Amino acid sequence: MNQSWGAPEQLLRKMFDAAVEAAMPRTCVPPYLPQSSNITKGKLVVIGAGKASAAMARAVEDNWDGDLEGLVVTRYDYGVACDKIEIIEAAHPVPDNAGLDAARRIKEIAEGLGQDDTLLCLISGGGSALLSMPAAGMSFADKQSTNTALLRCGATISEMNCVRKHLSAIKGGRLAIAAWPARVITLLISDVPGDDPSVIASGPTVADDTSYDDARTILADYNIDLPDSVRQTLENAADETPGSDDARLTNNLTQLVALPQASLEAAAKIALAGGYEPVILGDAIEGIASDVAREHAALALRRQVEGTRLALISGGETTVIVRGPGRGGRNSEYMLAMAEALRGAPGICALACDTDGIDGTENNAGAIIKPDTLERAANVGTSPQDALEKNDSYGFFETIGDLVVCGPTYTNVNDFRVILIDPIAE
């Protein structure tokens, strides 16, 4: 029996909330914790990085009956109070000195462990920027500027993290090497298409099969002008990141504890209860946000003629090529381009949000569109075309009151998108 959720935008929001809830650390971390009875020698030390890492640390403390200590770095405003694990907040997506200091301390903690100790690593999306420690000979300012250029050029998350690994003293498996011969257990909340552990937060504790040559190729493809210290690091690298054949990594354990697909499936159940047939398009959709939006708008219009109430659900991580001075993230830009493509088509509403609660650098998770979105925008003199040219999707949706603002969620399984389609009455 279908359950009524009221207006379509209410159902959209309940689906988003269900997607987030499916990835909450309080429920997804405890089943994967090691047994304290199995750690009979040495000590358990917890470290972590990412938007969900503080909440993951709290879940460890609430479910661990032995001694523990540690340090975790998360994004500003994503801290969760812990009793034994120190929580540090730092900047994202461009690293700052707080993140640099945290990374140095985490590396020192790892280096201080012995063969009887266990390092429990809590890693989630955002950890790459938060765990920022330049390779030897590179200035922190040059690493920051290169990171900013990658964020603005439209590079995929896999491409960005390949470069980040090779400009880092701690990513790409190097943190695990620092902890050797201690055992390393890594719990991961995936925010990347494909759920590759070596890509999540640039894989600080797992093997890396990319190379310095790969990183140089990516930077050349996007025509990024490199500072001298970055170029010298990539050209004169003496030590490659540890690969899957590195013996120092063979006894470590890596476990994915929350996946984007599970969040999409949780949202699909809400759609079904609300009277819509869920169709999951995939959890690993990439591409330029505006291009993906136009493709999804065309798909929605095609599916509308079938005469069935549908919910097209998708995840992944799109990118934005920043050309204008406006504000906004990839999800609100996706929504803006979709609104323009649909041109007020009746019976179609949609939502796109980042499951971490922050779309880019603003205070919104994303935005929502309805059939009257463009009409309401025109009534207040706001043009979707102008907003797209200026990359000002935040300003567009703020003006008409259709931003989705929920605050930090303390988890992160990347983007969540849904398009609700009602048949057109004849």
Structure overview:
The chain has 426 residues and is of the alpha/beta class. The protein has two domains: 8-20 and 261-421, glycerate kinase, domain 1; 24-258, Glycerate kinase, MOFRL-like N-terminal domain (Rossmann fold, 3-Layer(aba) Sandwich), CATH 3.40.50. 38% of the residues lie in helices and 19% in strands. The strands form two sheets. A six-stranded parallel sheet has the order 3-2-1-4-5-6, with helices on both faces. The radius of gyration is 22 Å and the shape is globular. The relative contact order is 0.14.
Count, helices = 16
Q: For the residues shown, what is the average pLDDT?
A: 94
Strand content: 15-25%
Taken in chain order, the helices and strands follow as: HHEHEEHEHHHHEHHEHEHEHEEHHHEE
Rounded to the nearest angstrom, the distance between the terminal CA atoms is: 26 Å
Shape summary: globular
In terms of per-residue confidence, which ranges show pLDDT below 50 for 5 or more consecutive residues? none
Helix- and strand-based class? alpha/beta
Helix content: 25-40%
Kindly provide the radius of gyration, computed on alpha-carbon positions and rounded to a whole number of angstroms: 22 Å
The CATH class of the largest domain turns out to be Alpha Beta
How many strand segments? 12
**From the coordinates shown, what is the CATH architecture of the largest domain?**
3-Layer(aba) Sandwich
Q: Which strand order does the major sheet show? A: 3-2-1-4-5-6
Total of domains: 2
CATH topology heading of the largest domain? Rossmann fold
The name of the CATH superfamily of the largest domain reads Glycerate kinase, MOFRL-like N-terminal domain
How would you characterize the largest beta sheet? 6 strands, parallel
